[in-house]
Amino acid sequence: MLLLVSYGLYAQTNAAYTLILLGVTFVTYYFALLIERSQAERPKHLLIVCGSVLALLPLLVFKYYNFIINTSNAFFESIHCATVLPGLNWAVPLGISFFTFQAVGYLMDVYYRRIKAEHNWLDYMLFVSFFPQIMSGPISKAKDLLPQIKTCRQFDAAMATQGLKWFVWGLFLKVMMADRLGMYVDQVLDNYMFNSGTSCLLATIYYSFQIYGDFAGYSFMAMGVGKLMGFNLINNFQRPYLSTSITDFWRRWHISLSTWLKDYVYIPLGGSRCSKARNYWNIFVTFLVSGIWHGANWTFVFWGVLHGLFQIIEKMFGWQKVTTTNLPIRVARIVITFTLVTIAWIFFRQPTIADAFGVIERIVTEHGALFKPSNTEVVFSALSIGIVACVDLLREFLPKRFYQLVQAPVVVRWCVYYALLLIVLLSGVFDSSQFIYVSF
Length: 440
What we know:
Blueprint: H1 2-13, H2 18-37, H3 41-78, H4 96-111, H5 121-129, H6 142-150, H7 157-189, H8 197-228, H9 246-252, H10 255-269, H11 276-294, H12 298-317, H13 327-349, H14 353-365, H15 375-397, H16 399-403, H17 410-427
Helix pairs in contact: 1-5, 2-3, 2-4, 2-5, 3-4, 5-6, 7-8, 7-15, 7-17, 8-13, 8-14, 10-11, 11-12, 12-13, 13-14
Keywords: Acyltransferase, Cell membrane, Membrane, Transferase, Transmembrane, Transmembrane helix
GO molecular function: acyltransferase activity
Family: Belongs to the membrane-bound acyltransferase family.
């Protein structure tokens, strides 16, 4: 039933692209069986290389072919060569980066003997295509999700209740905060050259909260739907804007991707068990891959490089290991980390590196009147950020008091639930806007 629903929902976007999903699933399933049966190390190495390349090939073609061709054409034009290579006019299959990385991660786990190859074809198909997470993650590991697929599940009222709470919170983050802030962000940053530096600064800060609300909102809704059906999916976000370093930020932001990159890129390159210079190189390559994974544009590459350099600098001075119970120092570190992350988001958001530097230039030099939408927009934007900030601060610094809500009287709990739903219904933005990470 779940397999039919997963493929049926995926086919609604473009039925032909289910063949891509099926192809990646078949390649990784078949090569995992071949790797498990192979005894010699050399054939296994050849099989993992061939299987990974074949599984990644659709991702490379659909997502990066035009980027490579456009870059090549620009190079030929710069040297006055008339050669023009043809591009593709195809849309990128929905969630291709997520289900490809999940399938390749499974293949790598079989190769490193962390798990045994899955022999049930239908179970493995559902693992790759499970509908709550296929669009924007989280990227689940086979050792976590496959056993749940194979287990006979019964309805669990407590689990379903928690799932509904996660879903409503995710809905609030998406339609109340992310989509509302997105209207201001689009108005200002898409036309940054006509707006003051003050407006650009506010829009940049808004974008940090927009992308958090958008992506975390999806992840929490995916967790909620999973729990309703008896599945525990990885929590992708742990209050990332309360991080005290960039290293700490990546332990809290898009946790499933960070784990994937650590297990299948950083550690195979040598991780930290090598010379300092080699370790810094491993960090740089890992975040370069992270930038490339996010999109076929130089802005994403630059964003990944920035985060890699931030972490290398932290490691050079040992700042990532420094912990403190001194509240003013901790707050200062949180503010510095948030500032660095927000600056990097400018390159993530803008279409070109030149546009990103243009926004930064206006923030630094062009101070002027603040662009203000309607009073209603101001109030709802401030309200949404305030609620999210209060919830994250309570969970970070006062977790026991926050979770006492679960033991609160029924009347109190339902008043909170209805208040949250009422805010969503009255002030949410229901314009069918797509999730940001769907395009990745």
